[in-house]
Design a protein that fits this description.
Order of helices and strands: HEEEEEEEEEEEEEEEEEEEHEEE
Strand order of the largest sheet: 4-1-9-7-6
Distance between the termini: 99 Å
Strand content: 35-45%
Shape: elongated
Number of strands: 22
């Protein structure tokens, strides 16, 4: 066999190998499908939790995305309820199951909506905190629960990420905390936080768990207490004190959705 013929056969073998590899790749690609998941209804910067499963396959989707390379079959779509500072967001899928076929892209949409929560109202003159159940708010309800232990001139209220309730207690210049598990059983508060300024009014917790307190007795003062401190002990100095020029005696404080700006009212 001549050298020229050997070279030609080698070239033909190489070309055939490339063609077979391309066909194999094409067949592999066409043997799988994709699933486009579209998510809506959550505040900016908040991720969802949607579980996509089939057999041993499991994937958690946190934002709108397309899952590729999926084996054909029927996948289960399971949105999880999110808890954001005592606010629950329920997810609902357009279909609980989606069929993915080879070479095609299936789709499913997941919509989140805020779930109505219970309403907590401080009663300054009665030294109590009343809870009105979510399901009764449109029918002139009586309180479903009342907290009266440890309160003296309650004003602002806020829940932390664990569901604990924080209350500005003006009569004793302190902020008190009630454990989440005890809120409907007339609880006594945990050790109070003694604030550096007088007559604490508004209370708010930021995304990192730090506690912010406004004051009516100290003009323009807004104090911050570190999350690590308020979890470990009950009396300490604030991490920082901000002076808000031209804004005296702020009564309420709240953090808005991302980017979590602090808003004050009087």
């Amino acid at each position: 066999m001549s050298r020229v013929r050997v070279v030609m056969l080698s070239v033909l073998a190489l070309v055939l190998a490339v063609v077979l590899a391309a066909c194999s790749s094409s067949d592999s690609s066409s043997a799988t499908g994709s699933l486009a998941v579209t998510m809506s209804g959550l505040p900016s910067g908040v991720n969802g939790v949607v579980q996509v499963t089939m057999g041993s396959y499991a994937q958690t989707v946190s934002a709108s995305a397309t899952l590729s390379g999926l084996a054909p079959g029927t996948y289960t779509i399971a949105p999880q309820t999110l808890s954001l500072r005592r606010n629950a967001f329920n997810g609902s899928a357009s279909s609980s199951t989606v069929t993915v076929s080879a070479g095609n892209t299936a789709s499913v949409s997941v919509s989140y909506a805020a779930q109505r929560g219970d309403l907590w109202v401080p009663d300054y003159s009665a030294n109590t905190l009343d809870m009105f159940a979510a399901g009764s708010l449109e029918s002139s309800p009586a309180p479903s629960a009342t907290i009266n232990g440890g309160l003296n001139g309650p004003t602002g209220v806020a829940f932390d990420a664990s569901g604990n309730l924080w209350v500005g207690n003006q009569g004793v210049d302190a902020v008190v905390r009630y454990a989440a598990a005890s809120l409907t059983s007339s609880p006594s508060p945990a050790a109070p936080i003694t604030t550096g300024a007088s007559k604490p009014a508004g209370v708010a917790l930021d995304v990192n768990g730090n506690l912010w307190v406004t004051h009516q007795g100290t003009a323009s003062a807004v104090e911050e207490f570190a999350a690590a401190d308020i979890a470990a002990k009950g009396s300490y100095t604030p991490t920082a004190t901000a002076t808000i020029g031209g804004f005296n005696n702020a009564e309420q404080a709240v953090f808005d959705p991302p980017p979590y700006n602090l808003r004050l009212s009087r």
